[in-house]
Specification:
heterodimer, A: alpha/beta, 6-stranded mixed β-sheet, B: mainly alpha, ABC transporter involved in vitamin B12 uptake, BtuC, 1% strand, globular
Chain lengths: 249, 322
């Protein structure tokens, strides 16, 4: 069976900046994979390329074995790829229910069906009490949930979550983790971009590390956390050696 | 269902106007107000629901008007058939302008400017092309028979434009409760988010623009039959582009009744100004401008929004008193 998602040697250049330099990674069906890396590493750019918002300068993206490079976002959404945005993009003038219903309409023509489906999804992500509030009135945590709910409403096979946990306080984080785990348990393959290491460690089976547009490491969360290249990418050249040399405690 | 009942009630009440008064002044006023309501409803589909502010709806109004008129005058086509072809031609012009501007990714003020430019180009062409009668204009021959879409009295004209408005109200009400309507509003609110949930933004905008143009073109066709005279400045002039956006903005942008409400308010203001100042040319436009500034500053959701806020305020007061 082909991988759910396979990114092959994708490069993307913005003027003089090489945002992605032959980046590659893959996700098997049913996995939760985390994509980590310092700020500016190219993680969100990679998401935008996978979901069709950006076209790569070279390389290709395979989804369930098909080359989907250059297919527009709406067509990919119809094939089962959903994404959330790092900076929440609600339909600000609409209520939470209407926001989610827009997503639910993808598979449902009738307004009543879409609105009913929106309610089910809202319950799943814990937005049920806010269904009739305007989306603009939600807190950061609420907006992250709304991003997740709207993406879920299109009933994706592959869900790309761009920092849905960033900016949440510890108790919000505790509430959100089981939600993501439950989505995964329904059989949805998930790719996370995440800075919250606690979440990466407990959710992901497999981690890819991106730095300056290169994929510098991959492996289990535990292996990644002690990988010298990863530590250097985050803390600077020589950091790994200094850490090893430093007395513990 | 309640929303459809409201439409039926409003239309039924308006239908009674010719029984209440036979005054030509009143009926003429109402015909023009309803015409603006129709043209404004066309603008509302694209601008109010879709968030694409056109400044050139004259392009569709004028096309509808000229096609109806020219088909009758030059080719002897029946006026009712001319009406159907005029609406189709308006829709086609809308689709072409829409495809060109949305394909190039024009949004916001750039889109507004391009639509204005298209309308102006059509106006200039119409003012020199022989087929439109160039500077002389096009006169539709008097033929007071219902088959020719002409009537002795104003009442039938009034009912016909009211029927057009009623159809547009039902259509917009239906859109509001449909998937297409939800997608249109989603595109207005956030295009990237819309793409991410599977909305083909280009197609949604194009469909809205085509429908919008068709509705506005119907207004143009009616104008031709009612006044029986067209020239480039009337058909493609900026005046109608302004009226088309003024009515929904003042009445309540992106609402079913906004254009109708706005048209009645705007036209009443215009008449009131004329009464007070005599016929000082352009003064009504000054008043429009002032009202527009006030609405945008203090009632961004228009007159309909004001009603809504007043109702909420009253309800809150009742609750505190109880």
């Amino acid at each position: 069976m082909p991988d759910m998602l396979r990114v092959e040697n994708v490069s993307c250049r913005f003027g003089g900046l090489l945002a992605l330099d032959r980046a590659a990674f893959f996700v098997e069906q049913g996995q939760i994979v985390a994509l980590v890396g310092p700020n500016g590493a190219g993680k969100t750019t990679l998401f935008s390329i996978i979901t069709g918002f950006l076209a790569p300068n070279s390389g290709r993206v395979l989804y369930q074995g098909d080359d989907i490079t250059g297919i527009p976002p709406h067509a990919l959404a119809r094939r089962g790829i959903a994404r959330t945005f790092q900076i929440a993009q609600p339909f600000a003038g609409l209520t939470v229910r209407e926001n989610i219903a827009v997503g639910a309409h993808l598979l449902r023509r009738a307004r009543v069906d879409a609105l009913a489906a929106a309610e089910t999804v809202a319950q799943e992500v814990g937005l049920a009490p806010m269904l009739d509030l305007p989306a603009a009135s939600l807190t950061v945590a609420g907006r992250k949930r709304l991003e997740l709910a709207r993406a879920l409403a299109i009933e994706p096979k592959l869900l790309l979550l761009d920092e849905v946990l960033a900016g949440l306080n510890p108790s919000e984080l505790r509430d959100m983790m089981p939600v993501i785990r439950a989505i995964h348990d329904r059989g949805i393959t998930i790719v996370l971009i995440e800075h919250v290491m606690q979440a990466v460690m407990s959710l992901a089976k497999h981690v890819f590390v991106l730095a300056e547009g290169h994929m510098i490491a991959m492996g289990s969360p535990q292996a990644i956390a002690s990988d010298a290249r990863v530590i250097e990418a985050y803390l600077g050249h020589g950091a790994a050696q200094r850490m090893r040399g430093a007395p513990h405690g | 269902m309640r929303s459809y009942a409201t439409i039926a009630l409003v239309v039924a009440l308006l239908a009674l106007v010719p029984f209440v008064t036979a005054s030509n002044v009143v009926l003429n006023f109402m015909v023009v107000a309803l015409l603006i309501a129709l043209v404004g409803q066309g603008w509302n589909v694209l601008g109010g629901y879709g968030g694409q502010y056109s400044f050139g709806h004259a392009a569709f109004f004028g096309t509808g008007a000229y096609v109806t008129a020219i088909l009758q005058v030059r080719y002897g086509v029946n006026a009712w058939i001319g009406l159907a072809i005029g609406v189709a031609a308006g829709a086609l012009v809308g689709a072409v302008i829409g495809a060109l501007s949305f394909r190039s990714g024009l949004r916001g003020s750039y889109f507004a400017l391009v639509t204005l430019a298209f309308a102006e180009v059509l106006r200039v062409i119409a003012s020199v092309a022989p087929i439109t009668g160039a500077g002389v204009g096009t006169l539709i021959k008097l033929d007071l028979r219902p088959e020719a879409f002409q009537f002795q009295s104003r009442a039938p004209f009034y009912w016909i434009i009211l029927a057009f408005v009623a159809i547009s109200l039902l259509l917009v009400q239906r859109i509001e409760k449909s998937r297409f309507g939800a997608y249109l509003v989603a595109v207005r609110e956030n295009e990237d988010a819309a793409r991410a949930v599977g909305i083909d933004v280009f197609r949604v905008k194009l469909a809205a623009m085509t429908l919008s143009a068709a509705i506005t073109a119907a207004g143009g066709c009616f104008y031709a039959q009612y006044f029986l005279f067209l020239d480039a400045g009337i058909a493609y002039g900026p005046w109608i582009s302004v009226e088309a956006l003024l009515a929904p903005i003042i009445g309540g942008i992106g609402t079913v009744f906004g254009p109708l409400l706005g048209a009645l308010v705007v036209k009443s203001l215009g008449e009131a100004t004329k009464l007070v100042t005599g016929d000082a040319p352009g003064l009504d436009l000054v008043i429009y401008g002032g009202v527009l500034v006030l609405v945008v500053a203090f009632a961004p959701r228009g007159t309909a929004g004001l009603f809504e806020s007043a109702r909420k305020l009253l309800r809150r007061r009742e609750r505190t008193h109880a």
